[in-house]
Amino acid sequence: MIVGIDLGTTNSAVAYWDAGEARLVPNSLGQLVTPSAVSIDDDGELLVGLPARERQPTHPDRTATAFKRYMGTSRKLKLGRKEYAPEDLSALVLASLKRDAEVHLGGPVTGAVITVPAYFNDKQRRATRRAGELAGLKVERLINEPTAAALAFGIHQRAVEEPFLVFDLGGGTFDVSLVEMFEGIIEVRASAGDNRLGGEDFNRVLIDFAREKLAGVLPETHEGEALYEVMRDAAERARRALSEADEAPYRFVWDGREHRIAVTADAFAERAEPLIERLREPVLRSLRDGSTKVGELSEIVLVGGATRMPIVRKAVTRMFGRFPDTTVHPDHAVALGAAVQAGLKRRDADLDEVRLTDVCPFTLGVGISERDARGGRRDGIFSPIIERNTVIPASRVQRYFTMIDNQETIRLEVYQGEARHVVDNVWLGQLDIPVPRKPAGEVGVDCRFTYDTSGLLEVDVSVPETEISQQLLIYDRDDAALAANLDARREALAALKVHPRDQAANAALLARANRCYEGYLGETRDYVGSLLSHFESVLANQDPREIESARTEIARRLDEIEGEQFL
Amino acid sequence: MSVGQAWRQLGLDPCHDERAVKRAYAARLKEIDPDTDVEGFSRLRAALSIARADAQRRGAMRETIGHGEAVDVGTGASAPSNPESALEAIASPEPAPDPAKPFVDAIVRNLFPQPGQRSDPAALVGAVTALLEDPRMEQFDFAGETEEWLASTALRAIPLSDPIVVMLADRFKWEAQLDRAHPNRLLFAAAQRSNDLRCIGVLSDPDHRWHNAWQALSVPKGGRPGLPDRLRLSPSVTELISSLGYNNPSVLQQCDPETVEYWAQAVKGSASADIVPANGISWFAWLAIGWLAMTVLARVASAFGQ
Fold first, then answer.
1. Which side of chain B, N or C, has fewer Cβ within a 10 Å radius?
2. Which positions ≥6 away from A221 have C-beta within 8 Å?
3. A199-275: which CATH topology?
């Protein structure tokens, strides 16, 4: 079975294609989305999903969230005594989703279509693919998140003829895609985005707001530290509450004292204005690239948890001059679309008349030197080979020539980006190829870029004169090291003791009660403490029926204290 | 790929019907697997874009010739086209946005003054500022159209548009286009103009170290500058010409060509004197050779003398 997986910054989900429909898989807690969180408990057992996320404020040194933001970087995250790469942590989430799917489907899951933000660069894509392999999944394809959402939307709206726009603001990334449908072909015309903009940034706005208000009272704090994580949890709660009300409390307990500030929707909107402003550019660029006017769009489809925020919805309505379509479930659409792609990959009969084409959202090319009109040499000029919004798969070749008499090698540096000078673009890799010694300009190399449907790049360089050819593996030294010991790492991850699946609900409740205990003072704390010890004694008795009823009851009482739990 | 090949690839006779092109493309796409057949897919995409462009051209031709009889070669399923409504769309200009109309009119009046009238820079700046404050500037369509209209209008009204170009460039961040590998052509041109104006503004400052050089270059004096002028200004004019040639070639083009040519010649003359051909012999070597020759001659002479 091949499943579709939405590997998100905040939440992940897994879905499959069956009997002409995409369906989501519930996790061990019966929920359709699983927080992208990993934690190691005191017994050294691994927790993934909700129980792990609940432990974030109480055990920041043993818990990791939002690690998708570091995919493709050499940054390591520490859990307990061990360090993990972001792709290791993603692999643990993927493995957990894989297990959920196997339990639900009653058979092995061998492959997956995994979604990535459209604006993920080559390194981030490769890291995601490795995460899948580390989780024991064959990664059939990487698909862009807005494209997946477009598939989920389009599969039910096959009659729509005008282009529509997918506006995908997730936990950590922002993507815009302009999509057109005709004759069963779902064609992405243009994509643009910002791979550093999402719900997490809105949380940061609230954290900064609180830090300012409490300046002098609170010590300095940074990401990953206990205080910061407590404040982040409070920010997430306040932000959710602001989606429902005009004012929400931002409250947390630190060092035995309760801090409480009231945040109004207006104050939040004012503070978040710079982030809202950053939503404009990618939309404008995708519309210009697709030479489409807003007036021609049939729908504006909102996807991603952060589009639930009223300030985002208001901004979208204002900028497009019309109301967006909110019929698609913002947290489910991407996984459902990935499942449709999995069905397409399997050549499912129900999808016989459907085809999908996507684009590569950024320009790929090499760095060159050129002579200007006055004979001076300018280095570091970007020479594009595959233009942005080229339909993929694509293969293009370009010839470059020597610049100096008797030049012995040509160095090709591969870059991704839109800037004219390579220093402002993302460096992907380089290769030196020997050339025969001749006068300048008489020897050329052919540089072929091939961009596959997963958005991964391959570079082939050949010298026609000598028939020497080389393939550039697009990764730098860090990546090479990571790719080399994939098997060893897979074994290391597989050796981690996983918290028993049937205990997940108990672990989640315990973690939540513990967080509540630390998050309140006085009578409330004592009350939560008594609930905790009650639950612990019930757990000790090991009577499943009793445990379940106690769990429901305690969850209800915690809801009364802090409001309903969210995903 | 030729146009004929493109149509054959799609299995279609040449026509003006873009929908038929898309339909044929869809049918061909379903026959191949792009994942494994990258070459085939590339060919199909090329065929699509060529045939689409050709169909558009045929459509446009058909409209100018008249309805009906033109190059419509037997695609029974051609889309019902309504030339009248299409014509109407072309004939009626973009309905001017009402609240913004007075400002738009004021901008046009001051950029393209009627004979006998004068452009008022202050009124121009005021009208543009007022237009930019329109609440609809938040909307993509309105903002995008206004931005493009302002850019193209300003470019057509050089130099009367000088007072607003830099201000518009700041507001719409046009100058970011200068660093793009694929800039938007219109906005790039506007950005260049704004960058040039900024550059001239900087050079016009009497305290700038290239100010005198800029004056020498930009103010046609007639006749050659005297030797003292040349000695005084040569190095900085050289720097200025090379900097402008690199960063703001159009500023250089605006200067009096004869003056620039003269300075470039003078500069080249003095520069070439400094250059020693790489394979030549330096004056020091010549000196050494000369000295050696003299010594030898002296020896020979003295030998004969004895």
1. C
2. A211, A227, A228, A231
3. Actin; Chain A, domain 4 (3.90.640)
pLDDT at A475 over 60: no
Fold of A362-473: Substrate Binding Domain Of DNAk; Chain A, domain 1 (2.60.34)
Torsions phi, psi for B9 (to 5 deg): -55, -35
For chain A, the domains span: 2-197+278-359, 199-275, 362-473, 501-562
Tell me whether residues A320 and B184 touch, CB distance under 8 A: no
Tell me the CA distances in angstroms from B288 to B276, B283, B285, B291, B293, one per residue in order: 17, 9, 5, 5, 9
Domain boundaries, chain B: 3-91, 101-201, 204-274, 280-306
Cα distances (Å, whole numbers) of residue A563 to A149, A177, A331, A554, B306: 30, 36, 21, 13, 123
d(CA B175, CA A172): 28
Phi, psi of B254 (to 5 degrees): -75, -25
List CB contacts (< 8 A) between A453 and chain B.
Answer: 34-35
The set of residues, in sequence order, having a beta carbon less than 8 Å from that of A112 and lying 6+ positions away, is A2, A3, A4, A5, A94, A98, A132, A137, A138, A139, A140, A342
Please give, rounded to a whole number of angstroms, the shortest distance from the CA of B41 to a CA of chain A.
8
Per-residue pLDDT of B200-230, as tens digits, reads: 999 988 898 888 888 888 776 655 666 777 7
Q: What pLDDT digit, counting tens, does each position of B37-90 carry?
A: 888 999 999 999 999 999 999 988 887 776 554 444 444 444 444 444 444 444
Q: In the prediction, which pLDDT does B83 show?
A: 45
What percentage of chain A has pLDDT greater than the value 70?
Answer: 98
Contact A214, A234 (CB under 8 A): no
Largest CA distance in chain B: 116
pTM (2 d.p.):
0.85
**How far apart are the C-alpha atoms of A549 and A553, rounded to whole Å?**
6
Q: What is the pLDDT of residues A87-98, one digit of tens each?
A: 999 999 999 999
Q: Which CATH architecture has domain A2-197+278-359?
A: 2-Layer Sandwich (3.30)
Chain A: closest CA distance from residue B206 (Å): 28
